[in-house]
Structures are given as C-alpha cells and as structure tokens.
Amino acid sequence: MSRLDDSLGFHQTALGLRAQRQSMIASNIANADTPNYKARDIDFRTALSGALNGRVGPLALSTTAGGHVGGMAAATVPQVMYRKESQSSVDGNTVDMDAERSAMAENTLYYEASITFINGLLRTMQSAISGQ
Amino acid sequence: MSMFDVMGIASSAMHAQSKRLNTTASNLANVDSVAGPDGKPYRAKQVVFQAQQMAGAYSQGVVVTGVVESAAPLRMVYDPKNPTADKDGYVAMPNVDAVEEMTNMISASRAYQTNVEMLNTAKALLQKTLTIGSQGA
C-alpha cells in the first residue's frame, strides 16, 4: 500500500501545486487592469520540494517546558513572490500579459503531463495486479 | 479546489470587464448629449477596478468598486442658435473623448477574451482530471 502511495503521492502533490499556480496566474490575468496590483507567482521547484518534505500545512510551535504556549501558524508554503516588473506603468500595475499567457500555457501543459503520468502509473499497477 | 477558483476569478474579471464595456458604450452613445436626466450635460463615466480576495488563499478576483465621472472640463461649442446656449452663445457639450473611449473598448474586449480563454483552459483541465483512472485514458 505504501508503495502505491509513494509513487502516486509525488504526482498528487505536483498536481495540487500546479492547480494553485494556475489560480495565481488567473488572478494576475484577471487583475491586468487593476491599479496598483502586483503580479505574483511561486517558484515551482522550491514549492514542490517544500511540499514533498512535509513543510506544507500548519506549522506547530514545539513546547519543551510546561509553561510554553503552543501555537499553529497558517500554511506558509508555497512562498508567494512578486514578479519582476519588465515595463513600468503609470498606474502601478506590474502584470505583463505576455509573461502571464506563456506561464498559463506552460502550467497547463505540466498539469496535463502530471495527469498522463498518473494514468500511466495506474495502468502499470493494473497490469501488475492482473498478472497478464 | 484550486481549479474551481480559477473559474471564479475568470468570471469575476469577465463581469468587471463587461461593466467597463457598458460604461464605454454609454459614453460613446452620449458623446453629443447636451442634457442628461438632471438637465446638465452628460459627463464621461469610468469604472474603478479593485483586486478582491477570493475563497482560495492564492486567488484574487476583480470587483468594480464604483463608477466615477470624469473631471475634465466640458467641451464648449459656440452655437448661439442653440436653445441651451449661455448668454455668450456657448453650448456646454459632454467631456467624452471618443478616441479614449475607443481604446478603452479595445482593451476591455481583449481582456474579456483572455479571461474566457482562462475559463476554458480550467474547464479542459478539470475534465482531464476526471479521466484519471478511467480505462480509455
């Protein structure tokens, strides 16, 4: 069971992050005309390695003595970063439509790739189970 | 579910852009309206966009926070025969800049198109997600 989980877990995490990134790109595109909006994105490599090492989700404070107060921080990973501005505009908006469109196409492709990988893994498992 | 957030974001943007297109249409239609419902000359209107936090932590949609009237001076046209002319013979015409409105219209329709594409992409990806584990895939 753990073997199944392990092999699918990577792609599941990647798929989740791809979906999150897609929603950030959608936000950037939606706010292309909003004054003072700053385009945001995540560094996918860092986010994925962070998520795989279990650094995603609530961070708990460790309590080593009786008087310590426990606490939970909100999910902080993946770290959201502001995109570098390529051409400044008067209204303070930093959305570059070309960059966003290409990021969207790239992210879409990677999302579909992850799904293809998952399907391939499932087929492999299926044929291993049926033993034909 | 982040991919459903994309649909919410795209539809909020489409809603905002169509409001912007509406004001542009209203401005262009009233480019020569000497008097509005209040008897004063029509003033060009513009929508104000603002980013809005959506359900997902990483998603920000758009909301129209209001409609402002242009503070540009009214266009004064010399036409003493006009019944609305002032004592010097000038008629106050709307401060609509037709060129500005046309560029606004193109910008709004392009932004709308991009968001439609975003919505279609999200839909295609969700449908693809539904095929995970099916026999044919």
UniProtKB/TrEMBL annotation, chain A:
Coiled coil: none annotated. Pfam families: Flg_bb_rod (PF00460). Transmembrane segments: none annotated. Keywords: Bacterial flagellum, Cell projection, Cilium, Flagellum. It is found in: Bacterial flagellum basal body. PROSITE patterns: FLAGELLA_BB_ROD (PS00588). The keyword Disulfide bond does not apply. It comes from the Bacteria. Residues 10-38 form the Flagellar basal body rod protein N-terminal domain. The basal body constitutes a major portion of the flagellar organelle and consists of a number of rings mounted on a central rod. Belongs to the flagella basal body rod proteins family. PANTHER family: FLAGELLAR BASAL BODY ROD PROTEIN FLGB, FLAGELLAR PROTEIN. Structural component of flagellum, the bacterial motility apparatus. Part of the rod structure of flagellar basal body. This is Flagellar basal body rod protein FlgB. The gene is flgB.
UniProtKB/TrEMBL annotation, chain B:
Coiled coil: none annotated. Residues 9-36 form the Flagellar basal body rod protein N-terminal domain. The basal body constitutes a major portion of the flagellar organelle and consists of four rings (L,P,S, and M) mounted on a central rod. The rod consists of about 26 subunits of FlgG in the distal portion, and FlgB, FlgC and FlgF are thought to build up the proximal portion of the rod with about 6 subunits each. InterPro entries: Flag_bb_rod_N, Flagellar_basal_body_rod_CS, Flg_bb/hook_C_dom, FlgC. This is Flagellar basal-body rod protein FlgC. Keywords: Bacterial flagellum, Cell projection, Cilium, Flagellum. Belongs to the flagella basal body rod proteins family. It comes from Viridibacterium curvum. It is found in: Bacterial flagellum basal body. It holds the Pfam family Flg_bbr_C. Residues 88-131 form the Flagellar basal-body/hook protein C-terminal domain. The keyword Translocase does not apply.
